[in-house]
Amino acid sequence: MKEIPTPDAHQELREAVRALCRRFDSAYWQQVDEARGYPEAFVGALTQAGWLAALIPQEYGGSGLGLAEASVVMEEINLSGGNAGSCHGQMYNMGTLLRHGSKEQKRKYLPGIAGGKLRLQSMAVTEPTTGTDTTQLKTTAVKKGDRYVVNGQKVWISRIQHSDLMILLARTTPLAEVKRKSEGMSVFIVDLHQALANGMTVRPIPNMVNHETNEVFFDHLEVPAENLIGEEGQGFRYILDGLNAERTLIAAECMGDAYWFIDKARRYAGERVVFGRPIGRNQGVQFPIADAYIETEAANLMRFKACAMFDAGQPCGAEANMAKYLAAKASWEAANVCLQTHGGFGFAHEYDVERKFRETRLYQVAPISTNLIYSYVAEHLLGLPRSF
Ligand SMILES: Cc1cc2nc3c(=O)[nH]c(=O)nc-3n(C[C@H](O)[C@H](O)[C@H](O)COP(=O)(O)OP(=O)(O)OC[C@H]3O[C@@H](n4cnc5c(N)ncnc54)[C@H](O)[C@@H]3O)c2cc1C
């Protein structure tokens, strides 16, 4: 039977990540999901092996790999039946610090992150009253001497309970006082342990997937001025800069999911005998699996195109967005086909299909919803009028 995914230039890297992932089998992920727990042992092993420091330059203790390689790490986790959503934040959050942080900030945090002593798993952007309309966010950070005082609220902030540091976007100049609405926001690195004792509270949001995500409230939280990343007022641009990596890495996770669903579906279709023959002999069963495979292979091309452009330092907003769109669509279609192929058994926890079905659905909504990608393509690539 054909290998899924097809062997590529990253085979050695894939084998190494697979070897680690094999230690965390289906029973492990089922147990974590049922307990609504955090895959601490898995994330610990991944960190110790250095994979979560793939994008950190060697001078700070990381492996200095490209986005293509980092994306293969994420893909392999999902392809193994696991869920990289428990730890993918560190891969892309760290980019904000790396690109816009001062030398002192990089020296202070990056070696600790690379060595596994510190986790930078969280990024706080989304707010309950403004959602996707980020420039309208209401959380403020007001400078008072050598501190910024933060007040406001965030929602859907992931992995905060399993992180030491968080990237925070807050408004430092009121909207009415800036020329462009994208100006006047700033990015801070927040020490979560200090913050929890000094004005930040966290309320978990029970949700459809086993994803540790929270409401966060800031009540006069003081953040040292030295924790401002880059220039005051330029934070929105810094966050946007990081989104191409985020979208491409998520696309790779979707690829891992899609290939997992296709492999699972084709195996089951070959084994399950009904009406005296394998169900996979029926074209009504095999065609949807073939269709999902074609869509997945096509999406994978865009994912690697986005990686190559990112790694070459070229602008890749369009490719990163389109890769995320195509990959999330392909994985969701593959999930649906896999569930259908399994019939009733697809609903049983022991097959893992229903768990990964829930997990992969998230990527049509977060970190950016499908409509917002359509709108990006319509306006920025096709020159259609702005809709908002
Ligand atoms: C499990 C989970 C984890 C998350 N983790 C994080 C995190 O760690 N940090 C963080 O900052 N955020 C996080 N998010 C938030 C996520 O990025 C947002 O949910 C997502 O960007 C959509 O925003 P919203 O939920 O406010 O939807 P809204 O902005 O309220 O939009 C709702 C729907 O309307 C559509 N819509 C809105 N405006 C338009 C328009 N003009 N044209 C067409 N359609 C439109 C959207 O596409 C969407 O489908 C997470 C979300 C989830 C569910």
From TrEMBL:
Residues covered by the Acyl-CoA dehydrogenase/oxidase N-terminal domain: 8-116
Annotated coiled-coil segments of the chain: none
Domain Acyl-CoA oxidase/dehydrogenase middle residue range list: 122-219
GO molecular function, one term: acyl-CoA dehydrogenase activity
Domain Acyl-CoA dehydrogenase/oxidase C-terminal: start-end pairs: 233-366
UniProt keyword annotations, A-Z: FAD, Flavoprotein
Cofactor(s) it depends on: FAD
Domain of life (superkingdom): Bacteria
Keyword Flavoprotein set for record: yes
Family the entry assigns: Belongs to the acyl-CoA dehydrogenase family.
Protein name: Acyl-CoA dehydrogenase
Source lineage: Bacteria, Pseudomonadati, Pseudomonadota, Betaproteobacteria, Burkholderiales
